[in-house]
Amino acid sequence: MSIEASNVGGEAAHPVPGHHHEIHFFLDGEPFETDRREWTPNEIIKKFGDKDPATHYLVRIEGHHRHSYEGKGNEPIKIHDGEKFQIVSTGPTPVS
């Protein structure tokens, strides 16, 4: 798991002991967490997926619906607790 810290405004609005504002999400079926709400798809691919955005793009999975960020890798998106993402390769699929 990975945590990425962000200090927006310098102070927490209402700190609650033992309560953190981490966002838990899944990338390629693996759980991750961050306290930063806004990321670009390319940042998610690099930071959490350890892949190259030049050869991959991000897809948000919402039930049976898929939202592709292909061609939109540098546009900031807001991630929410429990969301699911998948990294898709743009390269050829190897055949055995």
Explain this structure.
This protein has a domain at 23-89: Beta-grasp domain (Ubiquitin-like (UB roll), Roll). The strands form two sheets. It has a five-stranded mixed sheet, covered by helices on one side. The protein is globular and about 45 Å long. A hairpin with a 2-residue loop joins strand 1 (23-27) and strand 2. It contains one helix and seven strands, in the order E-E-E-H-E-E-E-E. It has one helix at 41-47, and strands spanning 23-27, 30-34, 38-39, 56-62, 65-68, 77-78, 84-89. Residues 1-16 have low confidence and may be disordered. It is mainly β. The longest helix is centred in the middle third of the chain and has 7 residues, at 41-47.
Write the layout of secondary structure elements.
Layout: E1 23-27, E2 30-34, E3 38-39, H1 41-47, E4 56-62, E5 65-68, E6 77-78, E7 84-89
Parallel strand pairs: 1-7
Antiparallel strand pairs: 1-2, 3-6, 4-5, 4-7
